[in-house]
Design brief:
Oligomer: heterodimer
Structural class of chain A: alpha+beta
Largest interface: A-B, 46 and 40 residues
Number of strands of chain A: 27
Distance between the termini of chain A: 50 Å
Strand content of chain A: 25-35%
Radius of gyration of chain A: 26 Å
Number of helices of chain A: 17
Shape of chain A: globular
Distance between the termini of chain B: 79 Å
Chain lengths: 567, 542
Amino acid sequence: MLVGIDLGTTNSAVALWQDGAPQLVPNALGKELTPSAVSLAKGGQSWVGAAALDRMATHPEDTVTSFKRMMGTASTVTLAGTTLTPEDLSAMVLRSLADDVEAATGERPTAAVITVPAYFNERQRRATRRAGEIAGLEVRRLINEPTAAALAFGLADKGDREPFLVFDLGGGTFDVSIVEMFDGIVEVRASAGDNRLGGDDFDEVLVKLVEPMLDAAAIGTVPADRRRALMTLAAERTRRALTTAEDAEFSVVADGTPLTARITAEAFEEAAAALVKRLRDPVIRALRDSHIDVKGLSDIVLVGGATRMPVVRKALTRMFGRFPNTIVHPDHAVALGAAIQAGLLSGGEGLEEIRINDVAPFTLGVNTATRDQHGRFHDDIFAPIIERNTPVPVSRMERFSTLGDNQRQVTFAIYQGEARDVKKNVKLGELTVPVPPKPAGEVSVDVRFTYDTSGLLEVDVAVPATGLTRNLVIVDEDDKRSQKDIAESRKRLEKLKVHPRDEAENVALLARAERAYEGFTGQVRDIIGQGLTEFQGALDKQDPRLIADARDGLTRLLDEIDAHAPL
Amino acid sequence: MMARAFPWSRLGIDPTDDAGAIRKAYADALRATDLDEDIAGYAELRRARDHALWLAAEGARGLAEEDEDWEEDDGAAYGLGSLDDDFGDGAGQWDIAATLDRPLAPDTETDIAFAQPELTEGQRRAQEAWDRLLQIMYPGGESSDEAVTHDELDAGMEALGILIARAEEADLAEHDALDGALAELFARTWPRSAPFVEPANAAFHWLDESGSLDERPALRFLNQRLKGMRFHEKVQEADHPLHKAWAELTRPGRAGMFDRMRVKRLDVHKLLTGIRERYPELESFLDPQRVASWEGESASASEGKMRGGGFSSGIWVLIVVIAVFRVLVPIMTDEGEDKPEPASVAAVEKAQADTAAADLFGAGVDMAEVKSADAIFAGDLRKAVKTIGFSPDMVLAYGRQKALQAGAAADFEGLVARGELKRLWLAAALGSPEQCRAVLRGDFLAQPLKLDDAGRRREQELFKRMLDARALGAAATQEGGSFSVPGWVVEQTTRRSGLAPDTVSAALRDPDHAARCAMELAMLEVMLKEPGKVPVELLRAL
């Protein structure tokens, strides 16, 4: 079975193509969104999703979120003594989603279409594939998030659409795509983005804004990582509150002491101005590359929870001189689009006419050498071979010649990026070809890049003089030892203990209650404590009816407390 | 019916102005294609579609030829004239005539942002601010290299402020037009526009585009100037690594003995090269005499080494040259300043030794490091620097000789590094037979071998490897003696060099054979592929 998965920075979701439409699959807690959070305890017990997110408040050293930002890097986290890579963490989320599908349909998915930001580079994409494989899923396709959203948007009424802009501001990444639809063809004209811009950055801005307002001495007593976790969580809550109010209270409990500050929407907007400015550049790039004028766009489609922020909506309205389109559910569109792609790949009913044409998000090329006017030799100039936003699949060739007399060989290093200096781009691989020794410039070497629809880059180098050719398919060095590593990672993760599905609600409630307990003081804390004890008691008795009652009671209590502002 | 031409042939329809029909034809053709199997076909189909749509648009408009340039004319929005791509790297000749032909008042017919006949209040204010700024940049309608007066600066900043505020509240199209127009204006009126560039950069993030493939030409110029200005500020602070060199080069008059002691020659070189390459306008801050005196010193040093004689055995060359330079060194350094005090001699020598160490092993390596790696060689180097001076060419020649001679007695690690060095040199010398023979003889003075930057770096790396392997401090051995070459080495050498087998054998026996160089290079490459398999004597001998 092939499913579509939105593996987001903040939240993830899974959907299927069923009965001629994409359908989201709820998790064990009945929710369509599963927070991308993982928490561990000594002894191997693990939490994924809402429960893990709540454990961020109580066990921040053992919990991690936003690990999507680490994909493609070599960083790791150590939770409760277990070291995990970002691929491992993503795999845990993916596995949990696969569990949800199995519970809902009775069939365990074996393959998936996973979404990635359009602006994810090769390393980040490969890491995503690896995560899928560690989770036991064959990654049939990686689809760009804005393209997926465009699919969900476009297929809503199956009409033709003049070029529209997808504005996808998620938890950690920002993507812009200009997409056109006609006669069932979904065509991406251009993509641009910023991999380091998302809701998380707005949280940071809020934290920085609030810090000087809080009692430094009190907050200083909290150990650094716990402080960071608490502040970030509080910031996110406050940010949400500011979506519908003119001002909101930022509150955090440091070692039993409540610290609060009042933040106005205006102050937040001012503090976030620099971030908002950064939203402009990818939009401009996408417009320029597609040769489309702002006024020529038929719609602006908002995707990603962070687009709910008034400061972002205002900026968009200013930028485009019109109100953005909010028809598509910003949190669901990407997963639904992934399911549509999954449906397409498995010959789903109703999708026969649909085709998706995407573009290469980054320029691909090689390093070349030149001599400058001082006669100095520079061997780090980037020579593009496939320009960014070229429709994919594509095959392009460039001819190079030797720079030195009697050169024995030519080495091409393959890069992805937009900088003129290759050192600032991402290196994908290397290819060396021997050449006949001749005076400089007399030997030509042809380099052909072929980039196919699944994002695989093939490089062919040919020396016409000798007829010699060399071929390189860009695979990560990591991929070479990957199969063994992936199997090992999978085994390691399987050793971690996952709560049985039927306990999921109880586990989540416990985590939520504990988080609430930490977050309040005085009488409220006492009441929560009582509720917790009762619930724990019911669980110990293992009487399902008792447990259900206690669970309802505690849930109601927590809901009521959350509805009324703290203290 | 006539046969269809491209693009209609590819799309399978008759020529039409109906965009919808064209798209449908494209969609149908696309669905019938397996894209990955027929990549070229896909590219052709898209070309056909785009061309057909363009033709259809033409047909609808009823126009004949049209300019192929799709780019928005940013400049027109603010009466600046169309943008020519005539910005080269560094200071170019700006085509001011284009701006002067147009009246300084905005040409509202060509304004894209102000296409509506009615300007809003905000747009009107912005237009007026633009006109004021234009007047300041082109006083009296002429271009000027003069700096702005205080009043002009104030007025200009005020106008710029209004324009920046307008950009922030306007839509993307207007923002982009203003961004482009200001970049153009400042690029064209540099250096008069200098004080306005930083505030504009803060608002429009021009530096973020720096170094990118699609950096706009105006920005390419401005960003370099911006970086130059920032560098100029930073280098005047005491903690900047090149501050001393800057302070030295900006001092008037020729450099003296004390100056050369105080400032590393390497730093001066770095500063000069960096400025000339990237911020040429900053050279005007340096004193020409002082710069010349620093550059002149290395010139005379390189002349000196040319006088060295050529002997067949490497070490003999060095001794003769040392004798020659014992006389020359006092002459070269006598710039008319007093002889340094004895206390300073040690300092001078240390500085020279450090420079020599850096030249041989790479920037960042000093004598102390050399000493800790190989005390014997450190002593040798120090003595050599004292006698032959510390000019890079001499030091390099010394180092190369040492590596070749002493390295022959080294153990495996050192031998391999030595082999790599020799390969590097031979490869560089391949073009010139005399150069090649000189390398083989170990004569690096008469025919100094020039390597490019990458080659130099590699050489430094390899020297460092030999240093760490204590291969440089060993006593020199005499060349000569016989050695035997295993058959597989000969075979692979023959294949690799592309020479005839007889030539290879002949070249092996005769050091002066014309193909000896190529043969040795090939043999080195073969051996270095699997140095563990090669008999040690062979490694030593070659």
